[in-house]
Design a protein that fits this description.
The complex is a heterodimer of chains A (262) and B (271). By secondary structure, chain A is mainly alpha-helical. Chain A is 82% helix and 0% strand. Chain B has a domain of 125 residues: 3-Layer(aba) Sandwich (Rossmann fold). In chain B, the strands form two sheets. Chain B has a six-stranded mixed beta sheet, sandwiched between helices. In chain B, strands 2-1-4-5 form a four-stranded antiparallel beta sheet, covered by helices on one side. In chain B, 41% of the residues are buried. Classes of the chains: A mainly alpha (262), B alpha/beta (271). Chains A and B meet through helix 7 and helix 8 of A and strand 6 and helix 2 of B. The complex binds adenosine-5'-triphosphate and magnesium ion. The site of magnesium ion (MG) has 3 residues of chain B, from helix 1.
């Protein structure tokens, strides 16, 4: 039984990785067979070697954790601000009418386009980096939260109300848990926007971080290290998404409950 | 006999947009009178759109009324109260809570302590015969079981006034019949006041002490019929002569109103 499960799991991982493996194969072949110039594209073997060497020097973890820290800080602020405002707007539907167009416009406004503005206002500081990451992830969190609140089945609220529930009870015990799945979707989306934004933030006026590593290696023509930075960024994104997904699963376990019984 | 609910001259109108986009006042309840006796099972029958749900919502504190006087136990109707509970056609169970946790919600609202809550919830879950489903989630149950949970939930809350808005309308015919008998059995144990809305004449007669028939528009109680069938009632009573006689009587009264409602709808469509 255990063995069967283990085999099934290995099988599953293998099938999911087929695309990735093929991609690596192609990537390895392209520079070696001179389909592209090897100076511009290092094969994965060289990239993983560069990753190994960077890790050995302690540089990889330094850059990785600085980026991770920025991402988490930005995401944390946007989760707090986005959920608070989202709940507020979703709950008081009348306000939304006045703010909807503004928010839609803000959401469309790329964080990258605003980066120069943040630099003007806050300098090339850590603050302006946090703000660009915050901006990028704020809108999905905020808008998903407010839609989640708006879409709560009215009859659930009515049922609690008929039994004399207070406003705060309804908010805490009905609206919040009902909106939770949608809020988590927003946070996950926000998380992936954060990882994109951190790259941009670190390409201008930074002295550390994975975005800086990519930019710096390109300028110094250390191409394997440049790809090492890119691969690490992908890993950061994947890892963050996985972590957020686990948190989401924990809080919305009832959604996966189908077939979980004995 | 004491009166549980006394509604006098209740008016309720909604502002709606007609098909030309113009604002219009739609009067739903107009000089609506109804008395509900303590401990009785009263059903309301009436054509669609006559204001049955509107009246129930007002009693449940979910909607306002414009004019009139509504008293519950001689007191003016309060919007918030721990004395009533409503059962909806669509169950209204919380999908993120297990069956047992769903039963606890009303007691949570009343701030009953956790341990006691659990006990009461288990007792009422047993009453509807679903003890073995305590830790399942609502989506794992059939429609009939879900409605049983919803009824157990409102019973566990122990209100003195139960409002039921077409609770069995979404169930298949067989399940519906078993649920009716089950509701009778539960109700006969402690005789809480029930106000029950349905479209089924048979259901209303089988369950009720009295059946109120509403007019099409604007909504008023046209007539109240006493159902003098012996209790406890069983499935067999449906085929009794007396049952058939009452059904014909009720249908006679209801037919005109249903036709009126249909004509009204047609007129609206032709305009
Ligand atoms: N909030 C509202 N705003 C506008 N109109 C409403 C509102 N609630 C109800 N109405 C209207 O009031 C009328 C009565 O509605 P109600 O739901 O009470 O009917 P009902 O007797 O329960 O009908 P049914 O048997 O179909 O459930 C309907 O015409 C409906 O469109
Ligand atoms: Mg109705």
């Amino acid at each position: 039984m255990f063995l069967k499960k283990a085999i099934a799991r290995i099988n599953d991982i293998f099938f999911r990785s087929v695309g990735l493996l093929l991609f690596f194969l192609l990537w390895e072949a392209a520079p070696r067979l001179d389909w592209v110039r090897p100076t511009y594209m290092s094969p994965p073997s060289a990239v993983f070697r560069a990753i190994y060497l960077l890790a050995l020097r302690g540089e990889l973890s330094k850059h990785f954790f600085i980026s991770l820290q920025r991402v988490l800080l930005g995401l944390l602020v946007s989760v707090v601000v986005g959920i608070s405002f989202g709940l507020f707007i979703g709950y008081f539907k009348s306000i939304e009418r006045y703010l909807d167009l503004l928010f839609q416009a803000f959401r469309q406004m790329s964080a990258f386009a605003l980066f120069p503005v943040f630099i003007l206002l806050f300098g090339l500081s850590e603050l302006s980096k946090t703000i660009i990451i915050f901006w990028a992830s704020l809108w999905p969190v905020l808008l998903n939260t407010s839609t989640g609140v708006k879409h709560v089945d009215k009859v659930l609220i009515q049922s609690a109300k008929s039994m004399g529930a207070s406003r705060s009870f309804i908010f805490r015990k009905i609206i919040l848990p009902a909106a939770a799945p949608e809020i988590f979707t927003g946070i996950r989306l926000g998380g992936s926007y954060c990882v994109m934004a951190v790259v941009a933030a670190e390409m201008i006026g930074a002295t550390a971080g994975l975005g800086y590593l990519v930019m710096y290696s390109q300028e110094t023509f250390n191409i394997p290290e440049m790809y090492a930075g890119i691969v690490s960024l992908a890993a950061l994104g994947l890892g963050l998404n996985y972590a957020l997904h686990s948190v989401e699963k924990f809080f919305t376990s009832w959604k996966q409950a189908i077939g979980a019984g004995e | 006999m004491t009166i549980k609910v006394r509604a006098r001259q209740v008016n309720r109108a909604f502002q709606v947009k007609n098909d030309l986009g113009k604002k219009e006042i739609l009067t739903v309840l107009n000089h609506f009178d109804l008395d509900i006796q303590e401990g009785e099972f009263l059903s309301i029958l009436g054509p669609s759109g006559c204001g049955k749900s509107t009246f129930l919502n007002i009693l449940a504190g979910l909607d306002d009324y414009d004019q009139g006087d509504i008293r519950v136990d001689q007191e003016v109707l309060q919007k918030r109260s721990f004395d009533r509970g409503m059962v909806f056609q669509s169950y209204a169970l919380l999908p993120w809570r297990t069956v047992l946790e769903n039963l606890e919600i009303g007691l949570e609202i009343r701030r009953v302590r956790k341990k006691e809550r659990r006990e009461i919830a288990r007792r009422y879950l047993g009453l509807v015969g679903l003890s073995s489903f305590a830790n399942q989630y609502p989506h794992q149950l059939s429609g009939g079981m879900r409605q049983r949970v919803a009824i157990a939930r409102v019973l566990a809350y122990q209100p003195n006034l139960l409002l039921m808005d077409e609770p069995f309308a979404a169930l298949d015919a067989q399940t519906r019949e078993t649920m009716q008998i089950e509701l009778l059995r539960i109700w006969e144990a402690d005789k809480k006041t029930i106000l029950f809305v349905t479209h089924s004449i048979d259901e209303a007669i089988l369950l009720s002490d009295r059946v109120a028939i509403m007019t099409a528009r604007t909504g008023q109680v046209k007539e109240i019929i006493d159902i003098d069938l012996p209790r406890p009632r069983t499935e067999e009573i449906r085929s009794s002569v007396e049952f058939t006689r009452i059904r014909q009587n009720v249908w006679g009264l209801l037919k005109d109103e249903v036709l009126k409602a249909q004509n009204y709808a047609r007129d609206c469509a032709e305009l």
